[in-house]
Amino acid sequence: MLPEFSRRQLLTDPPQAGVSEVLEATPQECAALAERFGIEALRHFSARYTRKPYPGGGLMLTGRIKAEAAQLCVVSLEPVTEHLDKPFTLVVLPPEATPSEDPDGPDEIEADATGHFDLGEALAEELSLSLNPYPRAAGAHLPAGLDEEAEEAPRNPFAKLAALRGGKA
User: Fold this and answer.
1) Nearest alpha carbon to residue 66 among 25, 116, 109
2) Phi and psi of 15, rounded to 5°?
3) Ramachandran category for residue 6: left, alpha or beta (phi over 0 → left; psi -120 to 50 → alpha)
4) Which of 101, 107, 109, 125 has its CA 20 to 30 A from that of 55?
5) Rounded to whole angstroms, how far apart are CA atoms 98 and 94?
6) Rounded to whole angstroms, how far apart are CA atoms 58 and 45?
7) CA distance 169 to 126
8) 46: closest CA among 111, 103, 124?
9) Greatest CA span in the chain, whole angstroms?
């Protein structure tokens, strides 16, 4: 089964200066992605990027994803619109290349044995990680009393333990 926003591409050598490209989701793909991510709507999703050669026969993709998503507020359940404009960097590795173990390095996509990779799915994953996990409408507050405990910080991290021992710290 193909992902909702599949854009299979072939690992090819672009010119040293790079090649700029744009991918844009159709309204049907946006609706399918919204369902997958469990959000109210995805009104727009696109990516503008540059492909450049990467050492070892791979590709370096740098660009920006742009999206307009609607999610429900975690407090009031009102729709909240979020505009995303986020940079990304991806490295496409040729078949049989060893992925980097650097946690601070760019995300990597491994090309299959035929040299193909799914850039659309990688960008959809970038989008899902960029969405606000706890959207809140402007002015939305929890009812009085529900968040008092969260705001009240203990003076001593061992205060509760001390209370159990009879007040000895």
Assistant:
1) 25
2) -60, 155
3) beta
4) 125
5) 9
6) 26
7) 48
8) 124
9) 73
Run of H or E including 79: strand 79-93
Chain segment 149-164, per-residue pLDDT in tens: 455 555 676 777 777 7
State whether the Cα torsion 140-146-147-150 is positive or negative: negative
Q: Which residues are CB-neighbours of 141 under 8 A, at least 6 positions away?
A: 75
Check: CB of residue 35 under 8 Å from CB of residue 7: no
Residue in this structure with the two tokens 């021992």, named with its chain if needed: 165
DSSP state of 127: H
User: Tokens 């590795």 correspond to what residue?
Assistant: 93
Q: Flag residues of the chain having pLDDT under 70.
A: 145-155, 157, 167-169
pLDDT computed for residue 158 by the predictor: 75
How do the residues of the chain divide into helix, strand and coil, expressed in percent and rounded to 5? 20, 35, 45
DSSP 67: E
Question: Which residue shows structure tokens 């990516």?
Answer: 47
Burial class (CB in 10 A: 0-12, 13-18, 19+), 90: buried
Backbone angles phi, psi at 60, to 5 degrees: -110, 125
